[in-house]
């Protein structure tokens, strides 16, 4: 029988980032992942937006999250020998009212790293005429599929990955054994499957299905992410990811005609170029009712932990909170902030 200090269930963003945290800390860690189950990370556009446009505020904890995120993805790019995080400014078409608000924010020092000047004319060809255009700094995107694949190869080479379904709903694993592995600690990073996990049913998860298209638009500039009611994210070779939708009843990963139609309508409202839809995906975001991640130890089973609730912003949240999870797992006295603590649901 093999021995592992930590067994992680799920190789999405949460499980992957946590596995690397523990690996760098010298912990003997292993991941169990079921490739037949849907993985939100693979569907995600991977976009990072430091602002919340609705209220023109900064995204939650962005000043702390962004530096940690960039450092971690750069470090992993070096380790895995591939680039998967890309900085890219974002273009926000503004209404008259939004222009005023943008100008106010521009004079506020707190927004300096993220808000650039307003332009009267769109710097991107054939975007719908708007009152003005604001440029967001500090935005970018992670090629999520590329990242997961590179990480998976690393885990395989280092005998850290088992492709199997973990029977989360069958046992509390008090014997600390799965297949031929004896483990000390168990961390669940199962994304939206948490909803059916009997030991964590008290967590108020509210999963949200989302759909994304890949389009080919040879006449559209690739210098900016464009974002108004729908995002248009350049991913190279005149290809763009466009999305997304929100649906709370149908929680399958099946793309729908309604989803596609809704994205295309909003896209046509934003850009004036010909495009062809090449791909269409759907996935389920692990969103918690209070829109915060959820980290902690199970109240009754000392050896079981949870890392979930990355919601709509997994790319930015995962690196910072993976470090918090590592601290929690390795140091029994460590406490995470109340806002993200699993204890808030108990
Ligand atoms: C359409 C869409 C667009 C998005 N766009 C963005 C974006 O632009 N920017 C952003 O930051 N975020 C975005 N997100 C959100 C992002 O995808 C999530 O925050 C993040 O990927 C969640 O990661 P996770 O590891 O918690 O879950 P997942 O990525 O779903 O991973 C969970 C893993 O656990 C495995 N698993 C579950 N149960 C078991 C079991 N019992 N045994 C073995 N394996 C198991 C599954 O196979 C899966 O691989 C988007 C999501 C969607 C759906």
Structural classification: alpha+beta
- Structurally, the number of domains stands at 2
The residue ranges in which pLDDT falls below 50 over 5 or more consecutive positions are none
Beta-strand share of residues: 25-35%
Question: How would the global form be characterised?
Answer: globular
Molecular structure report:
The chain is an alpha+beta fold. It has 2 domains: 2-43 and 145-205 and 289-345, FAD/NAD(P)-binding domain, CATH 3.50.50.60; 90-134 and 208-285, D-Amino Acid Oxidase, Chain A, domain 2 (2-Layer Sandwich), CATH 3.30.9. It has 7 helices and 20 strands. The chain has helices spanning 13-24, 40-43, 62-80, 96-106, 144-157, 257-270, 314-330, and strands at 2-9, 29-33, 47-48, 51-52, 57-58, 85-87, 90-94, 115-119, 132-136, 140-142, 161-163, 177-178, 181-188, 208-216, 225-227, 231-236, 239-243, 276-285, 294-297, 304-308. α1 crosses α7 and α3 (62-80) packs across α7. The protein binds flavin-adenine dinucleotide. Flavin-adenine dinucleotide binds at residues 9-15, 32-34, 37, 39-41, 43-47, 165-166, 168, 189-191, 193, 210-212, 243-244, 283-286, 308, 310-316.
SSE map:
Blueprint: E1 2-9, H1 13-24, E2 29-33, H2 40-43, E3 47-48, E4 51-52, E5 57-58, H3 62-80, E6 85-87, E7 90-94, H4 96-106, E8 115-119, E9 132-136, E10 140-142, H5 144-157, E11 161-163, E12 177-178, E13 181-188, E14 208-216, E15 225-227, E16 231-236, E17 239-243, H6 257-270, E18 276-285, E19 294-297, E20 304-308, H7 314-330
Helix pairs in contact: 1-7, 3-7
Bound molecules: flavin-adenine dinucleotide (FAD).
